Prior knowledge:
Elements: H1 23-32, E1 36-41, E2 46-49, H2 51-57, H3 61-64, H4 75-78, H5 81-90, E3 95-96, E4 103-106, E5 112-124, E6 127-136, H6 138-215, H7 221-252, E7 257-261, H8 262-272, H9 274-280, E8 283-286, E9 291-295, H10 296-312, E10 320-328, E11 331-337, H11 345-348, H12 370-380, E12 385-390, E13 394-402
Parallel strand pairs: 8-10
Antiparallel strand pairs: 1-2, 1-6, 3-5, 4-5, 5-6, 7-9, 10-11, 11-13, 12-13
Helix pairs in contact: 6-7, 7-12, 8-10, 10-12
This protein binds adenosine-5'-diphosphate.
Adenosine-5'-diphosphate binds at residues 305, 309-310, 313, 338, 340-343, 351, 357-359, 366-372, 395.
Amino acid sequence: MGDLKGDSRGSGTGKISAGPLPEKTLRALFESAPLAFVMVDQSGTIVMVNNEAEKLFGFDRRELMGHSVEELVPLSSREHHPGLRGNYFEAPEARRMGAGRDLYACRKDGSEFPVEIGLKPIRTDDGLFVLSAIADITERKGLESALLKAKEDLERRVEERTVELARQADELRAANEALLRSNMELQQFAYIASHDLQSPLRSISGFVQLLQAEYEGRIDEQADDWIRRTVDSIRRMQALIQDLLAYSRVDSRSHSRETIAFREVVDDALSLLEAPILESGARIVCGDLPTVVGERALLVQLVHNLIGNAVKYRADEPPFIRIEARRRGGKWLFSVKDNGIGIEAKYQQRIFEIFHRLHSQGEHPGTGIGLAICRRVVHRHGGRIWMRSEPGKGTVFCFTLPERQRPE
Length: 408
Ligand code: ADP
């Protein structure tokens, strides 16, 4: 092997020239470099290798020196290699070999492994040589393919999940539509049933009243009791039917929206409750109430039910009811607070459900529909309703109404 000089063009020293470093140091560096180096002459004969190259290819240095570099090229590309090498020697420059292609090298045992190769022309007094720096990229390739696989796995899972979500969304949409349909059918049924029941009930009520007027006290005590009970049951059924009708009308009737001073809503509700208010000695206090956009009849019904309950479920002292409103997060927050009997915590979740009541007819008559109507009215206006209560101290019902009404 001749003495070498790095890419120098004719410095003429005949030694490896790398500035101030002596050849011995350079050689030691060359040998201990963590990269495999193989240098070949123009005929492709190996003229120099380092330790790492021996390790990488599994050849002893003596088995490489003077042999063709093609021995390190996989069989499949061995045939084309001399041509490529020839081209390189015609226009030598420092560059990567086989840019854009996957390169492989071949070990002594014939096994192949992926490599990255840097080429560097070296001119010496003995002619042009090429130094190849060869890095085994098996590990990197492994990581790359693991990464690719992970990416593909992820893409597949995202795709599967997207399909699954789309399917669930379809199912949900179908279920929602079915629910909406059955809700509407149920509402219609409730409306028709309660509406149609009214007229036969009116005649039953008429006849029983006639019976009572004509025969009370004329048959015997048992008959009087039965007639009284029948009249009571009919009254109760009428109340139920009225409330059911009101409940189903919340959504089934189209009410027109208008700008309303909420104080008027309260006044309308209070005038409907005149008798129980007078009878109970209730005191009702109103704070400043805003103007809202809504369906007047429904809002009156909401306030009527809440104040009516506050009066009905009073404790021993006369009811004291406070109605207030304040702005909170783009909404009006209304509260109706009483000093009544209160509601135990375990029942508080369920009282907005239809027919859910906590008292017998004897204690407090009612149908269990009032708060269900309240909830429906508030939801219809885009708000929320809830309550807080302390048994024995009182209850506060809160509901929100948007400051600006959503378009219908
Ligand atoms: P109803 O009054 O016809 O029973 P509601 O739906 O209006 O039906 O009320 C459901 C239940 O909630 C009532 O039976 C009552 O037990 C309870 N409740 C409602 N409002 C109040 C209140 N202001 N104070 C105490 N309990 C109440």
